Amino acid sequence: MRIILDAMGSDSHPTPEVQAAINASQAFGDEVLLVGPADLLRERLKTATGNTSKVRVIHAPEVIEMTDKPAENARRKAQNSMTIGMELIKSGDGDAFVTAGNTGGAMATALFSLGRIRGVKRPALTALFPVKGGRCVVSDIGANAECKPEFLLQFAVMGSIYAQKVLGIASPRVGLLSNGEEAGKGNMLVKETYPLLANSGLNFIGNVEGKELFGGQADVVITDGFTGNVLLKSSEAVAKFLVDLLRQELMGSFQTKIGALLAKPAFNSLRKTMDPAEVGAAPLLGIDGLVFVGHGRSDARALVNAIRIARQAVEAQLLTALRTAIQERLAQIKETE
Fold this sequence. Notes:
Layout: E1 3-6, H1 15-28, E2 32-36, H2 38-47, E3 55-59, H3 70-76, H4 81-90, E4 96-99, H5 103-113, E5 124-131, E6 134-139, H6 149-167, E7 173-177, H7 188-198, E8 203-208, H8 210-214, E9 220-222, H9 225-250, H10 254-262, H11 264-274, E10 281-285, E11 291-294, H12 300-315, H13 318-336
Parallel strand pairs: 1-2, 1-4, 2-3, 4-11, 6-9, 7-8, 7-9
Antiparallel strand pairs: 5-6, 5-10, 10-11
């Protein structure tokens, strides 16, 4: 298996990427293709920790920065690390691409380089949220701020396939994020999407609120990219606030410090569950290739976990399953017309 890692994606590039490539190649036993300015990467590999024999450098002299305009610079900087990396997937020289770079840049580059799965109207950035009892697939979390009902229907189809292949859930429960559980609640987009999901053949459980999402009552939750991105960033901020507040309170007195020491294993488990770095990256479902996007602040551990998630998708033949599901959906639509 050949996972391609964008060496110039994270806020601290390329240091976390170089170490992640080494760590991942040792952990998984596969070659990692590290894409970026070759001279710089080879110099960093000399001073990094670990065996570098399974890290292969692929030269890409240009970088899409966080401040760049995605579509414009994806074309203007034709030799950027994202484009070179995704072209490796297109040519069959790589199996999945991982970046912690500009999400808009990744989306634009993926569309230019790989295109969409035939029949997909909009790709969706899809996250695994920590919830009661495990994880929940949430889509879209930022790729499409403006959506139509048919987009959300496709997000649901792709999200269900992702839950089946990555989480191992045979019949994922699909919920539609809204401000109320009743079928009539929500804005116009939610109201128009509801009947599409109800008649989709998916295991649709209706509208869900945040409490149902985090309560583990749905396996897949669908929303537009604007709402999903606000949900993602708000939940991450609340999680960090609670962990920081708990740490502050536990260090407040001698008695609480003793209690904290005794409860340390439980607190470590809680921190790990709520840490976005444990998942590492979110796939762009609907792109005709496996593309995963992580946080700009990703460290080496987060990037290794991103590579792990990408490997799972390759092993589960996620892309083939998505292509098949979309074609089946299109065939069903034609039958009903």
